[in-house]
């Protein structure tokens, strides 16, 4: 009798994991099928975009749209055409300038402001912190922002896309919270050694917050790379358009890119579907390349900065 009871107890223990019953075979199969369907819904359109941008012109024309798997090999003519020095190439250079310069300026201003607000007792600390919090709660509105940009003479300039959003109140609060949590002993010992406030920030604050700076830089970089609405409002000159406006004009709205716009002259233009998918890939790839290197810093950077202080 005791042996039967022990066998039953062993089976019940094997059926429990962490105090919870183990899912049955049917439930596990259902979960696997559900996850497979979700992955297919996410991955298959991406594969279609990549394949269409790389498929030969004849295959794209024959398919009349998307090509899931190019059967006739790979053709890079769509990418060569958009990098021929025309509209897309110019837009890519503009987006690169906006992203690099804007992210650099935004990181510098955000980190220095966060450091200043984290130093208790500094001149104007509380009023400036109150201004940052108020700007976090209240949005100035579209028309006042446009009038400010106009008064500063930034219309039809890429600086109109960079300057108005170069400081995020949320990011400032996160950076300030992280700096507040730095060990006081390290800061005090550096002050005793004669370090100025700038040296404290540059040699202690920034090296100890590399993970946070990387994550905040990713936020700013993705925001500038995907800047669309600001460019739509402030940039009337098509030569100043970033890649997202070109994407909207020639992919979403379906406006055709001819040889003149692509810089090909009298050369044969690839199918419009291939060109559109190639533009879409160019707009996605930079973020996909950067994100894996920053992902490991998310929990350590943002969550620590949000919890401390």
From TrEMBL:
Source taxon at top rank: Bacteria
Query: Mind telling me which InterPro entries this protein's record contains?
Result: MetI-like (IPR000515), MetI-like_sf (IPR035906)
Q: Which PROSITE patterns match?
A: ABC_TM1
User: Where do the ABC transmembrane type-1 domain residues begin and end?
Assistant: 92-294
Q: What is this protein called?
A: Multiple sugar transport system permease protein/putative aldouronate transport system permease protein
Could you list the residue ranges that cross the membrane?
Answer: 91-116, 128-147, 159-179, 200-225, 275-294
Keyword annotations for this protein, in alphabetical order, are:
Cell membrane, Membrane, Sugar transport, Transmembrane, Transmembrane helix, Transport
Q: How does it sit in the membrane?
A: Multi-pass membrane protein
Q: Where is this gene product found?
A: Cell membrane
């Amino acid at each position: 009798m005791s042996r039967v009871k022990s066998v039953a107890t062993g089976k019940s223990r094997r059926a429990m994991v962490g105090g919870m019953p183990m899912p049955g075979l049917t439930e596990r199969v259902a979960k696997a099928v559900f996850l497979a369907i979700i992955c297919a819904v996410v991955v298959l359109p991406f594969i279609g975009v990549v394949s269409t941008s790389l498929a030969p012109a004849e295959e794209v024309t024959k398919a009349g749209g998307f090509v899931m798997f190019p059967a006739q090999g790979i053709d890079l003519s769509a990418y060569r055409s958009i990098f021929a020095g025309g509209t897309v190439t110019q837009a890519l250079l503009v987006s690169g300038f906006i992203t690099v310069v804007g992210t650099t300026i935004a990181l510098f201003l955000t980190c220095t402001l966060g450091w200043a607000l984290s130093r208790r007792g500094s001149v104007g600390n509380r009023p400036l912190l109150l201004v940052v919090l108020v700007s976090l709660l209240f949005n100035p509105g579209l028309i006042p922002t446009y009038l400010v940009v106009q008064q500063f003479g930034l219309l039809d300039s890429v600086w109109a896309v960079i300057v108005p959003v170069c400081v995020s109140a949320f990011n400032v609060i996160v950076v300030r919270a992280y700096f507040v949590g730095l060990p006081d002993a390290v800061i005090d010992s550096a002050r005793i050694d004669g370090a100025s406030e700038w040296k404290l920030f540059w040699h202690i604050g920034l090296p100890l917050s590399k993970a946070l700076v990387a994550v905040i830089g990713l936020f700013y970089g993705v925001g500038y790379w995907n800047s669309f609405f600001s460019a739509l409002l402030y940039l009337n000159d098509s030569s100043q358009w970033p890649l997202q406006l070109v994407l909207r004009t020639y992919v979403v709205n379906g406006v055709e890119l001819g040889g003149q716009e692509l810089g090909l002259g009298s050369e044969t233009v690839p199918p419009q579907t291939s060109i559109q998918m190639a533009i879409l890939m160019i707009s996605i790839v930079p973020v996909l390349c950067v994100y894996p290197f920053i992902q490991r810093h998310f929990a350590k950077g943002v969550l620590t900065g949000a919890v401390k202080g």
